[in-house]
Design brief:
Shape: globular
Order of helices and strands: EEEHHHHHHHHHHHHHHHHHHHHHE
Strand order of the largest sheet: 1-2-3-4
Structural class: mainly alpha
Distance between the termini: 36 Å
Strand content: under 5%
Radius of gyration: 22 Å
Number of strands: 4
């Protein structure tokens, strides 16, 4: 029988873990800490998205004066989408860097940049104060956010996946998107509270700044947690195999050498993010701007849907460990293909029960992706290029299809007058996602490519 030896903590890319020949037993305390730190970074990213999406109409008045409310909204979402144009650049910088120097160092750097970009938005003077300089500064801050975010999700999902035991990777990975929902609810909930308590004039003159300024202390907390982390066992093993500094993997190899996995990644991320941004970023503005729904009630409905998703999220993640990632993702694609039109018709009906039912159905379908993707996507790539290749594939897809969703759908409705465009857009995304999940291999319960099997000495917990 093989014996178990314990690797002592050390500085650098070492990771505290127990090992048997060919097997890694991760420390449950480190797993718990890694999940919390990674999820907090995602929460901060989506806190900003929640604030930006829910306060888009006010931001339009502050930074893009115009007599046309639709033009203001398009300008605001244009600045929102611009950040996604630089995400692939961020992925091409931070992803390979994470494969070279380590996941933990890069995740600490992206946390600093995200917090700084969001905090800076809260300090920008209005258009009435400095003229055209205001929207230019807003765009610069958004570009900083987008560049840093290019290394965030891929790094956080890689970090959790490489720490998690093989049989619990779906459950532990699902807490990354739990952080997403928590951050979004925090940002959107704060805007909803401010909308209810402040007058329209107060909100436009100074109230809108408060949510962005909160990013400063949040970033400090997140940075502290990430700096306390150790490197993942998978990355530490790669360093030990190299004996010296790891050889640099050319960017070309991360793309051409992984072209099939990259295409699958782009397809999976497309359906994941089109539906995600449609529901969480676009629908609040759709309810108020297109359907003229009461602003406060519309915001509360979306917050309720996200709270429902948070409750279901860990259970759905555990389900992917039992029945596999592919069946859960496929169920989400089929659901959006069949139910997008009925759900949007319910939403357009306008009554509170109908809107809640339609939004709730879309939210539960979205959980199929939020629960499965954090564990499914890292499993597409081997350890030596996982951070880099995943960053490139993820951010290219998000930039082209996910982050542009609010802008594209708003423009399509304006051009065609067809209020069902959101449903048709989600159905098209579901077709692409369905093809990708058909071609992907099942990864539940199996070691990550290029990594040793990973088990836990006792049941990991993220509570408490």
């Amino acid at each position: 029988m093989s014996t178990v030896s314990v690797v002592a903590p050390a500085s650098g890319p070492k990771s505290r873990a127990a090992k048997t020949p060919g097997t890694t037993v991760t420390d449950p305390a480190l797993v718990k800490r890694a999940v919390k730190a990674a999820a907090l970074g995602n929460a901060m990213e989506w806190f900003d998205f929640g604030v930006y999406s829910y306060i888009a109409v006010t931001l339009g008045k502050v930074f893009f004066p115009s007599g046309n409310p639709t033009a203001q909204l398009l300008s605001t979402f244009g600045a929102f989408a611009a950040a996604f144009l630089v995400r692939p650049l961020g992925g091409m910088v931070f992803g390979p860097l994470g494969d070279r120097v380590g996941r933990q160092k890069v995740l600490a750097l992206t946390m600093i940049m995200m917090a700084a970009g969001t905090f800076a938005i809260g300090l920008i003077p209005s258009y009435a104060t400095i003229g055209v300089g205001a929207p230019i500064l807003l765009l610069v801050a958004r570009l900083v956010q987008g560049f840093s975010t290019g290394g965030e999700y891929a790094g956080a999902s890689t970090f959790i996946a490489e720490y998690a035991p093989d049989k619990r990777r779906g459950f532990l990975g699902s807490w990354l998107e739990f952080g997403t929902l928590a951050g979004y609810i925090g940002g959107a909930g704060l805007v909803t509270l401010m909308t209810a308590l402040l007058s329209a004039d107060d909100l436009t003159s100074w109230g809108w700044r408060i949510p962005f300024l909160i990013a400063g202390p949040m970033g400090i907390i997140g940075l502290y947690l990430r700096l306390r982390l150790e490197e993942t066992p998978a990355f530490a093993a790669e360093v030990e195999k190299a004996e010296t500094n790891r050889p640099k993997v050319p960017l070309r190899e991360m793309i051409t050498g992984q072209w099939r996995a990259l295409l699958l990644c782009v397809g999976l991320v497309l359906v994941f993010n089109v539906t995600d941004y449609m529901l969480l970023s676009y629908m609040p503005s759709y309810l108020t701007g297109q359907l003229h729904y009461d602003e406060t009630h519309g915001l509360l409905v979306v917050l309720g849907v996200m709270a429902l998703m948070m409750i279901v999220q860990p259970f759905a993640g555990a389900l992917t460990d039992r029945i596999g990632r592919r069946p859960v993702i496929a169920a989400g694609c089929a659901g959006f293909l069949v139910l997008s039109v009925p759900a949007l018709l319910l939403i357009r009906e306008g009554s509170l029960p109908a809107v809640a039912l339609g939004m709730g159905a879309l939210g539960l379908l979205l959980v199929c992706f939020t629960a499965a993707m954090p564990s499914a996507l890292p499993a597409l790539f081997p350890t030596k290029v996982r951070y880099g290749s995943l960053s490139i594939g993820f951010n290219v897809s998000v930039s082209l299809f996910g982050g542009t969703t609010p802008l594209v759908v708003t423009a399509l409705i304006g051009a065609t007058g067809n209020m069902m465009m959101p449903a048709y857009y989600m159905m098209a995304a579901a077709v692409v996602g369905g093809f990708a999940v058909w071609r992907m291999a099942e990864s539940a319960g199996r070691p990550l490519p290029g990594s040793a099997p990973s088990v836990a000495g006792r049941e990991p917990s993220v509570a408490g």
